[in-house]
Amino acid sequence: MTDGGATAITVPTLASPGGPAEPTHGIGASLPPADAEAKTQGIYPYAADLWAEGLLWAALLRSPHPHARILSIDTSEAARMPGVRAVVTHADVPGDAAHGRKVADRPVFASDIVRHHGEPIAAVAADHPDTARLAAAAIAVEYEVLEPVTDPERAFSAEPLHPDGNLIRHIPLRFGDPEAIGEVIVEGLYRIGRQDPAPIGAEAGLAVPRPDGGVEIYTASTDPHADRDLAAACFGLAPERVKIVVTGVPGATGDREDPGMQLPLGLLALRTGHPVKLVATREESFLGHPHRHPTLLRYRHHADADGKLVKVEAQILLDAGAYADSSSDALAAAVAFACGPYVVPHAFVEGWAVRTNNPPSGHVRGEGAMQVCAAYEGQMDKLAARLGLDPAELRLRNVMATGDLLPTGQTVTCPAPVAELLRAVRDYPLPALPTDDPEEEWVLPGGPDGAGEPGAVRRGVGYGLGMVHMLGAEGADEVSTATVKVTGPTATVICAAVETGQGFSTLARQIVQEVLGLDEVYVAPVDTDQPPSGPGAHSRHTWVSGGAVERAARMVRTQLLQPLAAQFGMSAELLTIADGKITSYDGVLSTTVAEALDGKELWATAQCRPHPTEPLDESGQGDAFVGIAFCAVRAVVDVDVELGSVRVVEMAVAQDVGRVLNPAQAKARIEAGITQGVGAALTENLRTAGGMVRRPDFTGYALPTSLDIPDVHIVKLVEERDVVAPFGAKAISAVPVVTSPAAVAAAVRAATGRPVNRLPIRPQAAVAVVNS
Q1: Vertex 214, ends 211 and 215: CA angle to 5°?
Q2: How far is 537 from 504, CA to CA, in rounded Å?
Q3: Where is coiled-coil annotated (predicted)?
Q4: Strands of 113-114's sheet, edge to edge?
């Protein structure tokens, strides 16, 4: 680590010594993001910065109870306040009163029952933000407080919290022989906490009424077409009369904006005929938007005397909170990956997702896969200890490879270099041990002024192997559309794939540079007047949207080259485009792209749709996933076993990336994933008491800072291309998030000898008996 505890990032050299240098444009170049300069200078226009003539301000009234019956709502006092233009409740929703990703079970405003702390009850539009907040507080709501159901295990026997019941989905996976028994059996109970996506910047939006009676909503949506359709249904409008304009996305690791904020905003704009703006407080974000599913996991692993896995039995219970959201998808991933990247001949997994009165759960990077990774890697450590084997060696005896089967019966057809990844991190040199030098006290757990003593510090090394699926699953139609236009020396890309920090807009520029040889590439802003491209999840835009851009660019290339090739009596394949010039293989033809266009504009629209998948059947079997990415992480931690404080010293990462499309962005995405994983392992837990969110702010919810992030060494990037993916690339962002918490927990186990079966790791779990 560098002086002062700053993070040091090291990466492998991608080019061989003496080989070609990294390209300056196109695929393989470290092209910087187009918006990087504006964001670093603080002049990037986020959604909270938007303004419109005649602007009104909105505020929401949210429930102070996690579970209650609404007896009455009186808005009269709020409506009489000077400056208030409108007050809306459930009675003012002209269309569908409820919404949801797959199940429309979440109301725009609670009408009869409140199901979670912070659920919207009413919304106000006023000419000043303070007036709006005061008016919202003046709305009188009479509640009959009900006992909340906060234990997901109790949800099975509790009274239904929703007309659809408390059980959202049950997946009973059956694979192999249920009578199979191993010579060695280890069991474990694991709990994963509620991680918040903590989006950078305030959740905000601006709704502007249209002359045709429709509305435009300007917000940092990550799935604009789905949000448009949801909003149109709630507003009672045709989809073409609602437009979502994506603006000011600072970054996202899950659902960026809460629909519970967007929908009241649009209703107020339609009611008042004025633009209406809402900027959520951080407290409102913690209460309203979805979080990672808290999960309870019970495991039993069977192995033979040599450590080869025989059978895995598991029970997985996801707490969905009040509404279904993406819980069905998260459960499918959790059940399918419950055994990890290991060959398991027999697997029997029961998975449930249930409603409770806890805060809502939904899409957060690596959902489902992260929770089970922490559990199955804890089991592998237990098994290694029982057999007296090195933890890395035990894993190597069981890792899967291309051609092996998932417990869902699906064959892993993509590259699966799991053993190579594990060996890479295992063999990487370990960091030096800390010293007792007073000048280096900052290396102790707890930081420069920590209370710990060097004699109480124990070092531990742990491993984590993880996997994630790419694109959607279980029959999701993963289609994306893109248009590429070329005018003179400039190309324009039109694609509704939202740039959330994953690098798609940069990748789109690189693709066009690669195919058309043009340096000047402009990526148009995203709105719902463009064809849909789907959500920005699972790194899917690299595959489907990048594939659509590539196909459109190649169609334009054909339009450009075929007339020239015919003129010179040769095939278009004999012509190349580079640096804005078109040349033939023999040098006879040499012209610029601008000259070849001769004032014309060329354009093409293309789609990319990966091969179809299928839902898991009643036994949890089916080809549910398009592709899988793998990662290995070795964590080194120092633990003060008297205080229970943990410092992550180093994370060594080896990842299966298919192909590196942008080296700088690949490194940044892996570092970001490790950072989020360290947060999940040590600090991030949105705590609740009786369904009430405790301290919903960044003092109560501790994000890791730059001083908490360890040295990150990317020791190997395996570029074995997935032949069915455009460019052969795999997802990068999610799999380090999935894997790193398990590795940190394993390292703390090694340092303390404690089981460490809960994330984030509490200090009492890291305390060990110190020999006097």
Answers
A1: 100
A2: 12
A3: none
A4: 113-114, 68-74, 140-145
Strand partners, 339: none
User: Rounded to whole angstroms, how far apart are CA atoms 379 and 158?
Assistant: 31
Tokens of 244: 């979502």
Q: Where are the alpha helices (DSSP H) in 127-250?
A: 129-138, 224-235
* Cβ atoms < 10 Å from Cβ of 189: 14
- Residue 39 CA to residue 42 CA, distance in Å, equals 5
- Cβ(122)–Cβ(61) below 8 Å: yes
- Report yes or no: 199 and 250 within 8 Å, Cβ to Cβ: yes
Report yes or no: 496 and 7 within 8 Å, Cβ to Cβ.
Answer: no
Cα separation values, 318 from 297, 368, 461, 588, 696, Å: 9, 9, 29, 66, 22
**In angstroms, rounded to a whole number, what is the distance separating the alpha carbons of residues 152 and 26?**
50
Q: What is the DSSP string of 563-612?
A: HHHHHTTS-GGGEEEETTEEEETTSS-EEEHHHHHTT-EEEEEEEE-PPP
Stated pTM of the model: 0.93
Q: Cα 7–12–14 angle (5° rounding)?
A: 135
Give 10-residue mean pLDDT values along the chain (772 residues). Answer: 40 46 79 82 85 96 98 97 97 93 91 96 97 98 98 97 96 97 97 90 91 94 91 96 88 69 94 96 90 97 98 98 94 97 98 97 92 98 97 98 97 96 97 68 66 83 95 84 91 90 86 89 92 80 90 93 84 82 82 83 92 93 93 96 92 95 90 94 95 92 89 95 86 92 98 95 80 40
Distance of CA 252 to the CA centre of its chain: 7
HEC readout, 35-71: CHHHHHHCCCCCHHHCCCCCCEEEEEEECCCCCEEEE
Cα 704 to chain centroid distance, Å, stands at 17
Alpha-carbon dihedral 675, 681, 682, 686, rounded to 10 degrees: 100
**Distance from C-alpha of 203 to C-alpha of 289, rounded to nearest angstrom:** 10
Helices 224-235 and 259-272, packing angle to 10 deg: 50
Measured in whole angstroms, the distance separating CA 91 from the mean position of its chain's CA atoms is 35
Task: Report the relative pairing of strands 113-114 and 68-74 from DSSP bridges.
Answer: antiparallel
In contact, 477 and 467? CB cutoff 8 Å: no
CA–CA distance from 740 to each of 197, 430, 592, 684, 744 (Å)?
16, 17, 49, 14, 6
SS3 525: coil
Is the bond leading into 259 cis (omega within 30 degrees of zero)?
no
Contact 693, 289 (CB under 8 A): no
What CA–CA distance (Å, rounded) separates 578 from 557? 12
3-state secondary structure of 626: strand
